[in-house]
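Quick one, probably user error.
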């Protein structure tokens, strides 16, 4: 049975804000990652397995795996804050549990404890085969800090 939280979408305004922010991320564009789900406190990012994101053994590189996990957690937290707020990662730990193999990777960031200043997220990355078979390849935890944007910074964000 699929997790019910995966089905719950964030409001259209929150989805647009997260998508617009994600679209400004050069690294995610460079890696070829895309947002697959934006829910309140939960975000999924998909990264197709391509030669450009692999390491010498053909698995998706730990750097790419970690980057999509970190980003999924950051956006999961952002879904819970108002438009005047942004988030920055304070720290994260990732455990690489198995070689990151599959048709694509799916990173899931889930808010465990939202806070006024600090928010803690669970990070999971699955290797997904073309037949839908999924294997947990990495998991971790992340702490983010909420940063209030000044009116001038909010305008810069839209450039």
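Nope, works fine. Designed sequence:
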């Amino acid at each position: 049975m699929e997790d019910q939280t995966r089905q719950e979408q964030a409001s259209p305004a929150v989805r647009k804000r997260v998508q617009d922010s994600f679209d400004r991320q050069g690294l995610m564009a460079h890696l070829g990652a895309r947002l697959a789900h934006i829910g309140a406190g939960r975000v999924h990012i998909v990264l197709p397995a391509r030669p450009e994101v692999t390491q010498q053994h053909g698995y998706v590189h730990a750097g790419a795996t970690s980057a999509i996990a970190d980003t999924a957690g950051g956006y999961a937290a952002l879904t819970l804050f108002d438009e005047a707020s942004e988030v920055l990662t304070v720290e994260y730990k990732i455990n690489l549990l198995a070689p990151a193999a599959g048709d694509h990777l799916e990173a899931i960031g889930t808010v465990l404890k939202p806070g006024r200043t600090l928010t803690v997220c669970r990070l999971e990355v699955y290797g997904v085969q073309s037949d839908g078979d999924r294997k947990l390849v990495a998991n971790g935890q992340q702490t983010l800090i909420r940063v209030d944007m000044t009116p001038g910074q909010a305008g810069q964000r839209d450039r």
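The beta strands are 34-39, 42-48, 85-96, 104-113, 118-128, 134-148.
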